[in-house]
Specification:
Number of helices: 5
Structural class: alpha/beta
Strand order of the largest sheet: 4-3-2-1-5
Shape: globular
Largest sheet: 5 strands, parallel
CATH topology: Hypothetical Protein Ychn, Chain: A
Protein name: Sulfur reduction protein DsrE
Order of helices and strands: EHEHHEHEHE
InterPro entries: DsrEFH-like (IPR027396), Sulphur_relay_DsrE/F-like (IPR003787)
Length: about 130
């Protein structure tokens, strides 16, 4: 198996309304980062709401409210070096501003997301 650094891009579209889908993208991104790959996540459509301050601390990823909070998975990803980007139009869709969100690397538009995808070795969507 090659030890070359690969670029991974995870694009998330689903948000708090389907919390059970929220942990996997962070878990996989963390794993790729711990394998010394360059990993970015783009949050668009409803996924931007996952990054609103206070949401991840309250959101459990297992249906029924038991289990780990989403914040646990976000913290792991950040600690591993995963970069978070927010798609600009999704801010308005989720009634928020960049200041309403946890720390990110910034806001990206459609052309930037397309360029990120073109430059990536692996693109995974959720």
């Amino acid at each position: 198996m090659s030890t070359d650094v690969k670029k991974y891009l995870y694009i998330l579209t689903t948000g708090p309304e389907v919390a059970y889908r929220a942990a996997s993208p962070f878990f996989l991104a963390t794993t790729a980062a711990l394998m010394d790959h360059d990993v970015s996540m783009v949050f668009t459509i409803r996924a931007t709401a996952l990054l609103k301050r206070g949401v991840a601390e309250e959101l459990t990823v297992k249906e029924g409210g038991d289990g780990a909070r989403l914040q646990f998975f976000i913290d792991q990803a950040r600690d591993a070096g995963v970069k978070f980007y927010v798609c600009a139009p999704s801010l308005d869709l989720n009634d928020c501003t960049l200041e309403d969100l946890i720390e990110t690397e910034g806001v990206v538009g459609g052309s930037a997301v397309n360029e990120m995808a073109l430059e990536s070795d692996v693109v995974i969507t959720f």
